[in-house]
Amino acid sequence: MQLNTISGRFAALTIIFVMLAEVLILVPALASFRLDYLESRLERGQIASLAVLASDKSLADELEAELLQSAGLLNVVLRRDDIRQLVLSSRIPSPVVQTYDLREDGLVQTIDDALGTLLNRRNEVIRVIGAPVNQAGQLIEITMETAPLRTSMIEFGIRLLLLSAAFSILTAILLNVAVQRLVLVPIRRVISHMVSYAEAPEDARHIITPDARLIELRDAETALQTLQKTVTSSLKQKERMAQLGQAVAKISHDLRNILTTAQIFADRLEDSGDPKVKRAAPKLVNSISRAVNLCETTLAFGKAEEPAPTLSRFNLAQLATEVVEAETLASGDGPRVEFLCDIPPSLTIRADRDQLYRVLANLARNARQAIEGTGQPGTVEIGAGETDSDWWIRVGDTGPGLPEKAREYLFKPFAGSARKGGTGLGLTIAADLVRGHGGRLDLVRSDAEGSEFMIHIPRDMAILPARQMAGGR
């Protein structure tokens, strides 16, 4: 049995607590033993004195000494009819140091006297007064030495402690067996279920069935069962989603190729001489472009993970200008959207240029499309700056703001889009790319006056894994 186990510590604590209780019982027991010892000496003294009184003749010195020795006394005094009579006597080796009247001592006084006798190693002479049995006089008084009394008290205490130790060990063993059967065996069963479940969490046969008799253990098994069912269900759902994602990725790949070909032919329709065809061609081109973009974003999101950032230093204002130019061309003949860049011309940032371009392009495109959806002109502003700890980039617009549902599922794929027909993948991919730099993408505000996103990229790139640092310094 090891002390670092529940059963070992339980047994050790049981022994300690039982011994502590026995120690608390030992003191009153010693006091009671001392009182019984003195009363027995009084009785012996009374019997010896009655033997003397029953004889009309005086006893020989040898017989008197034998009676006193047999009773373990030095003197015996008996008071009858208000007459104090020294019945038995012998030489007292030393003066009497203490007198104890057993007729008056209470419990506290008895315990105090017992401790005093036990702690005093000197052999002293004491006087004990008590009432004779069977009303054989008014009182009886004996004189005795304390050494035999102290020896008997020590022997009694040792016997009591040994008996207590035996009971403590027996109690610990019985309790340990009870704990093993009632607590540890069910706990080991739960642990065994957890281990087997961890080896194959998708196998529903490994889910525990609560059958413990103890309420607490049954509650634990029930909670574990609920957790295992939830995990197993989530794993199965993720497996189905993964399979579905692979299927969607394959379909998107082939569909993108088909739509790209259709887009090429649709572009040629704009040169048609038929006015109806010429008017319908831009709408067809826009529809096909949106379908191609959906396929491309789905394929991008379906990758296992984005590649690690290839870090390099570049001018942020130039990158933002490229994004603005691309979005300006994409706005076409719709409502006029004005792009503003509030970035210091000399601001140099250290990041993956291509990935940061994708992040800004996604944010700028979302802002432009939100403004175009209102049919009113608006403004998209890209600002940036730096602090001692990071670089920050702000992308804001004067659009209608995001609806509550879009804000709730903002960075979740296929759930956070605010535009009809949108997938919500743009913000999800952008947030993943920023996290790959050790930074974060936050929605600062979104109300009737527009929306504002903030990008934070830390200057200390030590937080990135070493493989992400290989692209540049």
TrEMBL record:
Q: What domain of life does the UniProt record list for this protein's source?
A: Bacteria
Q: Which UniProt keywords apply?
A: ATP-binding, Kinase, Membrane, Nucleotide-binding, Phosphoprotein, Transferase, Transmembrane, Transmembrane helix, Two-component regulatory system
- May I ask which residue range the UniProt record assigns to the signal sequence? none
Q: Is Nucleus there in the keyword field?
A: no
Catalytic activity field: ATP + protein L-histidine = ADP + protein N-phospho-L-histidine
Q: Which InterPro entries match?
A: HATPase_C_sf, HATPase_dom, His_kinase_dom, HisK_dim/P_dom, HisK_dim/P_sf, Sig_transdc_His_kin-like_C
Q: Which SUPFAM superfamilies match?
A: ATPase domain of HSP90 chaperone/DNA topoisomerase II/histidine kinase, Homodimeric domain of signal transducing histidine kinase
According to the entry, every stretch annotated as the Histidine kinase domain falls at 250-461
GO terms, molecular function:
ATP binding; phosphorelay sensor kinase activity
Q: Which residues cross the membrane?
A: 6-31, 160-179
> Which Enzyme Commission numbers does its entry carry?
2.7.13.3
Stored PANTHER family: PEROXIDE STRESS-ACTIVATED HISTIDINE KINASE MAK3 (PTHR43065:SF10), SENSOR HISTIDINE KINASE (PTHR43065)
Question: What protein name is recorded for this chain?
Answer: histidine kinase
Origin species:
Paracoccus haematequi
